[in-house]
Amino acid sequence: MATLMENEAFMAFTTYATIVILKMMLMAPMTGYFRFSRGAFSNEEDVSGKSAEEKKKLLRTHPDVERVRRCHQNDLENIIPFVVVGLLYALTEPELSTALLHFRIFAGSRICHTIAYVGALPQPSRGLSWIVGMLVTFSMAYRVLSTVLLL
To answer: What transmembrane ranges does the database entry give (predicted)?
Structure first.
């Protein structure tokens, strides 16, 4: 463990991994906020105690809620691979400046992706931010494989 604490790339990784994980975690309360503020609930138990007419009105989808929910799903599909690959990448002891570039670009791309998704910005803003994050993860995966490939 002491050796890991001396690995600057690993320490940088823990910082940026924590940032993107917290960003991902904040999407759940944001979804709840949009559900309540838009009066759009997806489950019967969310509107228990309401009259049949109120339930009918509240059990619906809303574009804002769906956009935030899909953004959260996209985070799960991209941040989890980043964390796994980024950990392996950091353990290859890459040059700190290169590691920081990878981590910063990924974190920035996910933040831009969220702003583009939730703000309903026109394409290709969301698509570009998504592809940048994916390219960073693939770049780190390439480094891992090229460093430790033992076939």
So the answer is: 12-34, 127-145
| pLDDT reported for residue 2 | 65
More confident residue, 149 or 146: 146
Q: Which CATH class is domain 2-21+62-148?
A: mainly alpha
Residue ranges per structural domain of the chain: 2-21+62-148
C-beta atoms surrounding 89 within 10 Å: 27
Q: Is the per-residue pLDDT at 151 higher than 70?
A: no
Which amino acid is located at 86 in the chain? G
Report the Cα 140 to chain-centroid distance in Å: 17
Taking CA atoms, 137 is separated from 21, 26, 109, 114, 142, in Å, by 15, 22, 11, 18, 9
